[in-house]
Batch of 4 targets.
Target 1
Amino acid sequence: MNCVKCGNQLTEGKRFCWNCGSRVSRWPVIDRGFQLIYWRLSPRRKFYRGLLFLPFTLVGWLINWYGLPGAFWFSLLLAAALGETIYNYVKWKSEEDQ
């Protein structure tokens, strides 16, 4: 197995490259097709999944805003989903520039 960043030869079971310090993933990052496990997605796919999740969160927040006790939690969920989507977008663009 070789390091993705520097190309250094790695032995099996290593989690970090000794040459450049980058983390070696045990699973490949999936950028095409269906993938149920969130951690295997690329930052681009995580961003798109976050965009799909935001409208449902927003609708739940609007429904619960008027007098129901869960409005605070939906507001917190909406802020977390929005923050995660922004984070994945920034990470996707930074990896795209490299």
Target 2
Amino acid sequence: MSLSAGEVEEYRRTFNEFDKDGDGRITKEELKKVLAVVNPDISDINVDSIISAVDNNNDGCLDFNEFLNLVKPPVSLDDQKKEILSAFRYDQI
């Protein structure tokens, strides 16, 4: 399931709100401040785990693509099947 341009823009706005210094990356400290609003007791270990789950370049921060991987809804198996099957439909050629 691909995101629409509007969805990407909405996620970009959210990313920019998290990225307080505007350097294009969400640091551990920036993420912790946002998450602490929901869970004031969030630990550094929890924040590290969240970041490491999607930190593809291992810089300890989240760039926009990594942020998308964290927040976008997962693709369901049904959506994956539909996408694969649509690739083999001859009537679309």
Target 3
Amino acid sequence: MTRGGVIGMLATEYLLLGAVAGLIGAAGGLLLAYIVLTRGMELSWIWRLQPVAVAVAASVVLTAITGIAATWPALSKRPLEVLRSE
């Protein structure tokens, strides 16, 4: 496998990880917002798609950037060097 293939594989993994984390976080945030607004503050709750989609997209992008940045030093070396230093 080439270095580009490894980077692509890792990027895909981080994108999927960010998507799952974003969806779980969005679901938890929506549930908490619903409970606080309707029960705690006795206000009406309106569900809007745009803020949820922006939050999930931000989670995906930030997770991919952070993941690639964290693995970049290991990707810039030869595999044997990385394995010997561990």
Target 4
Amino acid sequence: MTLEIWMMFSMAAFFNIFNPEPAIIFAISNGINFGLKAVIVSAIGNVLGLLILSTVSMFGLGLILILQTSTVIFTSLKILFTPSLFKE
């Protein structure tokens, strides 16, 4: 990974960390309505979700670099995932 890509990813991650997202509003709402236990459960869910999204995005960056060099893998993934666009 080049330094430019790493810096862009780090900057995006920094702004996402300090951005008051709907998860924060959800935690405050749970705290007001249901108490501390609900806040803890929603915070754990939020952290697990962010962990999963971060992991997927890291592998996604690697996958983009692989797809740029291999047309066979790119074409096979297009064929594999195109039917999911037409589900009802």
